[in-house]
Amino acid sequence: MDSLHLVHVKILAADLLSLTVQHTSPPSFLRCGRAVARAEFVGVVVSRERRDKFLRFLVDDGTGCVPCVLWLNHHYLNANTSSGALDSDPTAEMALKMSEEVRLGTLLRVRGKIVMYRGEIQIAVRDVVLEKDPNAEVLHWLQCVRMAKECYDLPPNFAQAKKRQQQRYSTSSYDPDEQRADNKSIGLDVSLEQI
Amino acid sequence: MPSSEMFKQGAYLRVSGQLQYHDVDSVVAVIQDSSVSLKIGTQHLREISFRANSMYQFIGELLIGPENDAILQARIGRNVDGLDLNLY
Question: What is the pTM of this model?
Fold first, then answer.
């Protein structure tokens, strides 16, 4: 199984908002054919709307604006376990604290689940970090490009084989059959006779 | 008239530059980057203190006057002292 859907992929707003939506129930999202479920991005808060049960805000990272929602009605969520609330979701206290970090003009790192709302992609926020260093945004851009090249945009079996290779080299263990299988999936299935 | 395709009425832009001055009465600031300067309308900004020669970033809509004079009506402004402009 592709593990990419378990991590918060580092992503730019333009890429996030153009993910392929699969109309399953609940909707699922693909990036270059690989399922992604969670995202991390960095940008400036350009709009903010606070209601009783949620805080809605927009984060502009220079490539687009990501709509975000931070749920504050945890008493309701926790009372209804069928609503899908998880232990990893923020508590009411954490959510309130995070909502105070969301102010117009602040640079934030946001992580959360990718969801659909009224036909548009948005982020159900899991955590928010205030970034005081303005270079954090630029660093995120570079990390997005690097992760896309080295991991996200690779086909799943390629990425996993490459990861196994790196682990193997770091532990100094070598199994020729395993190496051959990985080489084949990476596209390096060339025998010595062919060289 | 600037030749940039971003020089359009109502364009939603993010600009960065060094603050030259901020006029509290007219609520207009001027930022500069190299030899180019731009006026920034600051009446919608809250919780921001202006320091001359500091770096600022503004996000807002570009308003172009009849004589092609432009002002960015800022929705957001923040101090970005320490930003590595070459990297940016």
Answer: 0.80
